[in-house]
Amino acid sequence: MKQSHIVACLLLSCMSLTAEAASNTDSILDDNSSNFPISRLDYIGEYIIPNDTKFDHVLVGGLSGIDYSADRKQWLMISDDRASKGPARAYLGSMSVTKDKVGPMTLTKMISLYQPDDTLYPSKETYEKDHKGMVPDFESIRFNPFTTGFRYTSEGDRALGMSPFIRDAFMDGHYFDDLPIPQAYRYDPNNNQVGFRDNFALEGSSFTPNGKMYFAAMEAPLKQDGALPSLTKGAYSRVIRYDELGDVIGEYVYPIDPLPAKPGAGKHADNGVSEILALNSQQLLVVERAGIQDAAGHYHDYIRIYQADIDNATNVIGVQTLVPGQYLPMKKHLLLNLNDDKRLPKLDNIEGITWGPKLANGQRTLVLISDNNFNASEVTQLLAFKVVYKKD
Question: d(Cα 181, Cα 183) in Å, to the nearest integer?
Answer without folding.
Answer: 6
